[in-house]
Amino acid sequence: MSAELFQRFVGMESKPVKNEVEKGAIRKFADAIGDPNPIYRDEEYAKTTRYGRIVAPPTFSRTFDYGAIPDFKIKREGLIHGEQEFRYFQPICAGDVLYCSTKLVDVYDKEGKLGRMTFLVHEQKGVNESDETVFIAKMTTIYRG
Amino acid sequence: MGNKLFQSGETIGPLTKPPITKTQLVMYSGASGDFNPIHTVEEFALEAGLGGVIAHGMLTMAFVGQLMTDVIGMEGELRIFGVRFTGMVRPGDELTCEGRVLETRIEAGRQIVSCEVWAATQEGNKAVRGHAEYAIPAEQ
């Protein structure tokens, strides 16, 4: 297995998927990561902040559905998460509707201690109903075929 | 507002999280939608040669995210946050998240702070290393 296998998908993108940001999902996520911040669960408190609404934690966008790049199939169990980066342009708040998509932006091979590894770089983004980009995430996964 | 400004070289944190439990990994799988069995199914993780279940890298990143939002406060905003996953984390591990300010500048009434961040296990092994940039109000 090598980068050649995935090369033809570079530049391809999924069709954006509509995601509704739910306050219950934010609370469950905050509970799972053990973050007691009231901004993730207390609406009355949230009203006293500049956001006015419950806000999502920095890595919450990981929970969204980004759709699938057509015909791009990979065994998820064989993947290792190598790197993750978020760029934030607007806060993500409960009640927001975001259209999320993913794009394969780069594929390359590298020789490592464990032999040849294939690096897949995806760019994922969330766009709001006014067509403004809310966040862009770059995810690098390592595939050992 | 009398906001405290950050200084280059200043330490951020630390934030020490309670030891990770298998229940937490199940909760995080449910909350995140990442159901890769290497995080929750012991037999699968052993078969995969991992020696048992390992924590989601994104859970460790979320811990560092908590450090960031705690430090930045409600008036600040996180602009960039990225990590490299550099080590495995297992149930029972106690992670400490920390950072160090690299550079600051004032821009349009806000202080822009860039820093390096990391999370380490009780043995001092780095599980993630990364960087962040945030903005806080700078007016007095």
Structural description of this entry:
- The complex is a heterodimer of chains A (145) and B (140).
- With 145 residues, chain A is mainly beta.
- Chain A is built from 3 helices and 5 strands, in the order H-E-H-H-E-E-E-E.
- Chain A has helices at 4-7, 23-33, 43-47, and strands at 17-20, 79-88, 97-112, 115-128, 133-143.
- Chain A is elongated and about 55 Å long.
- The N and C termini of chain A lie close together (5 Å).
- The mean pLDDT of chain A is 94.
- Chain B is an alpha+beta fold and 140 residues long.
- Chain B folds into 2 domains: 1-19 and 56-140, Thiol Ester Dehydrase, Chain A, CATH 3.10.129; 21-54, no CATH class.
- In chain B, 24% of the residues lie in helices and 36% in strands.
- Chain B has a 5-stranded antiparallel beta sheet with strand order 1-3-4-5-2, with helices on one face.
- The longest helix of chain B is centred in the middle third of the chain and has 16 residues, at 57-72.
- Chain B is elongated, with a radius of gyration of 17 Å.
- The model of chain B has no long low-confidence stretch (mean pLDDT 95).
- Chains A and B meet through helix 2 and strand 2 of A and helix 1, helix 3 and strand 2 of B.
Brief description of this entry?
The complex is a heterodimer of chains A (about 140) and B (about 140). With about 140 residues, chain A is mostly beta strands.
SSE diagram, text form:
The complex is a heterodimer of chains A (145) and B (140).
Chain A: H1 4-7, E1 17-20, H2 23-33, H3 43-47, E2 79-88, E3 97-112, E4 115-128, E5 133-143
Antiparallel strand pairs in A: 1-3, 2-5, 3-4, 4-5
Chain B: E1 11-16, H1 22-32, H2 42-47, H3 57-72, E2 77-85, E3 96-107, E4 110-120, E5 126-137
Antiparallel strand pairs in B: 1-3, 2-5, 3-4, 4-5
